[in-house]
User: Fold this.
Amino acid sequence: MTGDTVDVAIGGAAGSFTTARGADGAVCWVQLHVGPHGSTLAGIADALATAITIGLQQGAPASAYADALRRLELDRPAADGGDLPASLADCLRHHLDHAAVDSTATAAGQAGRAR
Assistant:
């Protein structure tokens, strides 16, 4: 299993987002730490990441979560130029989107080598 971790900031709270991939290159585990330990934000982030991980391990693709989260319409803070995630859902969508693209490229590369 391989993984990637990126630093994130959500509403001024720093954290990290980690994904792990199985042998097939598909995302099979996510972890999101944000906000101070024991805070409501940290608890919600952990619960959401756990729920997504369970779905991924049952065969749901990362792109399905990214698509669902993309449909949420959340207002961006006025001071934000659009470069930072506006919410927990936006952060997850952004990173799951990238993970899904990477998974597709990895799977295509493995299929090409198997021929």
